[in-house]
Amino acid sequence: MSAIEEDVATLDVVLAPIVTEPIDITDPDWVARMRAAPDPVDRAGVRAEAEAVLAEIVDRYAEDEAARPALRALFERYGAFRSSAHLPSAATPDGIRVQLLHLSVRDQQPDTRDEILTLRAICAQAREAGVDVDPILREVAAISSDVDRYGMGSTRAILLREAGRG
User: Fold this and answer.
1) Domain boundary residue among 54, 86, 118?
2) DSSP 89
3) Are residues 116 and 166 in the same domain?
4) Are residues 61 and 8 part of one domain?
5) For residue 145, how many other CB atoms are within 10 A of its CB?
6) First to last CA, the chain
7) What confidence score (pLDDT) does residue 126 get?
8) pLDDT digits over 72-125, tens only?
9) With contact defined as beta carbons under 8 Å apart, do 161 and 115 qualify?
10) C-alpha separations of 71 from 3, 42, 65 in Å
């Protein structure tokens, strides 16, 4: 676990100055500038490294029950990594499962409301592609935290609610 945390901590240090840059919202083009800006992992030149460590985290999270609390804690501690590291998405059962595992390990960080919107977008993408997402939601819910962190339900409960919406 310490090697994973070392990698995440290193990436967080590299990404933090980029994700915390001030935004001049008085500039009338600020939204367009943000949308046109390269992804932080690309600006830092660490996309491959970020994707590799995130894939390792997601794989370990799926397989190692004892490691899950520590893996969730990484996403609480390392906000720049959390907000910047993503895996390529695919509207296949395996691709949707990876996205849901990534959402689960973040455990509602940084904002439950945003995570619910992200969850709904993942599920909409899956359903539009003909992927039966409900069994995948239940599978990921089974290994997700059951702690209600912010009064909107645990990650497990949120995933199960979404399974009931399909």
Assistant:
1) 86
2) P
3) yes
4) yes
5) 18
6) 36
7) 97
8) 999 999 999 999 999 998 999 999 999 999 999 999 998 999 999 999 999 999
9) no
10) 12, 24, 10
**Domain count of the fold of the chain:** 2
What the block records as the tokens of 139 is 């599978």
The one-character DSSP state at 109 is -
| Distance in angstroms (rounded) separating the CA atoms of residues 115 and 92 | 20
Give the phi and the psi of residue 76 in degrees, each rounded to 5: -80, -40
Q: Over 70: is that where the pLDDT of 166 sits?
A: no
Q: How far is CA 127 from CA 44, 90, 165, in A?
A: 34, 12, 11
- Give the model's pLDDT for residue 14: 98
| DSSP per-residue string spanning 11-72 | HHHHHHHHHT----TTSTTHHHHHHHSPPHHHHTT-HHHHHHHHHHHHHHHHH-GGGHHHHH
